Amino acid sequence: MLRCRPPVLGLGAVGLCFPTKRCLIQSSKIPNSPLKPLSSRISFTSDLPGRARNQLNTRSLLSGANPSSTATSAPAQQGEEVEILPATNDNHGGVIVEMKDPMDSRTFAFSLRASLEIWRQQGKKGVWVKLPIELSNLVQPTVEEGFRYHHAEPSYVMLVYWIPDTENTLPVNATHRVGVGAFVMNDKREVLAVQEKSGKFRGSGVWKFPTGVVEPGEDISAGAVREVKEETGINTEFIEVLAFRQSHKSFFNKSDLFFICMLRPLSFDIRKQDSEIEAAEWIPIQQFAAQPFAQKHELLKYIINLGLAKAEKSYAGFSPICIKSAFTSRRSCLYLNTRDLNQPS
Q1: Cα atoms in the Cβ-side hemisphere of radius 13 Å centred on 210
Q2: pLDDT at residue 341 above 70?
Q3: 104 versus 198: which is more confidently predicted?
Q4: Is 230 part of the annotated catalytic residue set?
C-alpha cells in the first residue's frame, strides 16, 4: 500500500476545488516506475489534521481543465474509489490508453482526472486515448478535460493531451496519401491503358494509365502490381520507380505522393475486374501519346517519356531492395538506383 498526496475532488463555489487530503493508492507500482498495463484504485480519506483538510487547491487534476465539465458530472464522494485507467508507455515519454470495456462517462471522467495527476507526478508528457466507436459516449468527457482530436478511423477515434508546460511535440496526424501510376508496355510497344467509369474522366473517352492508392502497410511495389491486377486482370512484375510527384489538397488538409512505376507484363489477356473501370486495352504508345488530353497534360507527357527512356535502357530509376530495420522485425523496401550503385569505381 503506497501513500501519495493527490487531491480529492470537491465542488467549490466557483468551478472545481480540490481539498488537499491524503489518499491511498492500492497498487504495487511506485509513481516513478515505468508504467505497465495497470488498473489501480484511489480511495480518498480524510484523516489529516483540520488545517490540512481546510486547505484548498483550485487547480484541477488536469491542468487547465474546463470548469464547465462539472455540469455533467458530480464530484467524487468521500471514500469513493476511483479507478486509474490502464495504460502502457510509448517510446517518447508518454502513455497510451486503449479503452475496450464499457464505462459510464461520469466514472470515466473521475478516472481520467486521477490518472492525469498520477502521470503528471511521473513526469509523463503526451497522453493518447483511443476510443472505439462502441465507446463514443466517452468522447465528450475526454474533450471536456482538455483533450483534442488527433485522428479518426472507421472503428475508433484518437484523442491527445500534452501534460507539461512546454512546447507540444506530439506528432500531427498522417499528412500524405501514397498513390501509384503504372507504366506497362509489351514487346509490341503497346501500353496498358484504362478508361474510368467514375471520377473526373468519366465519359470523356480519355485513355490513362492504371492508377490507385497504396493500402496501409503495403509497399509501393506491391501496391502497383495489385492495382494493375485489379483494374485489368494483367499479372505484372515490378521493375522500378521512375519518378514521383508531391501535390497538395487543401480540402482534406492532405498531400499526395504519386509514384510513377515501371512494370513488366507477365500475362497479356485483359480481364477487367475493377467496377470503376469502363474499359481496358493494349494501345500503341504513339496512339496513346497522340490523345489531345495527353498532349495538354504535362504530367502524362513526362510519364510517357520516362517509360520510353526506361524501355530503351537509357534511364535508371529506383529499384526496390529488401532490407532489415533495427526498429522492427518486418522487412521493408529501400528504393535506389542500383545501376549506378553497382558500377565499378
Answers
A1: 34
A2: yes
A3: 104
A4: yes
